[in-house]
Amino acid sequence: MFRIIASRGIAATLAAPSSSLVLRSSTRFVSTTGTDPTSILDELQKRKSVSKKFDSEDPFKNILGQSALNLKTEQRGSAFEYASLLPPLDKHNGRTVRVKKGSYGRAVGQLNTLVRTNELKSKFFEQRFFTKPNKVKLNKRIVNKKKRFDAGIAKLFSVVKDAVRKGY
What does the alpha-carbon distance between residue 150 and residue 3 come to, in Å, rounded to a whole number? Predict the structure, then answer.
């Protein structure tokens, strides 16, 4: 891990040579020239002068006065804050439920809903013991064939039901 501190108080850390550089001044920077500290600092100075030039001429300023061009390069303060602002991607995310004004019953109900929709009980039993990769593939194949078979049986029963309804 590299730590770079410039004379103007800009601090940056670089975890690996291929990873991006994260600055303390809440901006994201990806080095295009190289991973040595001097080239990174030179690129930073160039970017700052270019962004100031765009800010003065930018017709797309938002209500707060921030440039629309600079909004793309901003980064949140910490990973937790950034992750909390992301929209939920799955059915239900998280493991905590807020209890509002002593409504314990509602909170327990929400927790039960969370457990049910995420299928935690079945996942717990699936993950209790290690299953070999070939066994996992075999189980997937069995489940998929069962789905196809059940769909075919349902289609057959619908054909029979239509035939009975029509009087055959």
Answer: 60
This prediction has a pTM of 0.33
Instruction: Please report, for the chain, the start and end positions of each structural domain, with discontinuous segments joined by +.
Output: 2-79, 90-129, 131-168
* Percent over 70 (pLDDT), the chain: 52
Distance separating alpha carbons of residues 73 and 21, to the nearest angstrom: 12
Residue of 17 and 41 predicted with greater confidence: 41
Evaluate whether 82 touches 76 at the Cβ level (below 8 Å). Answer: yes
Cβ-Cβ contacts under 8 Å for 3 (sequence gap 6 or more): 11, 12, 13, 14
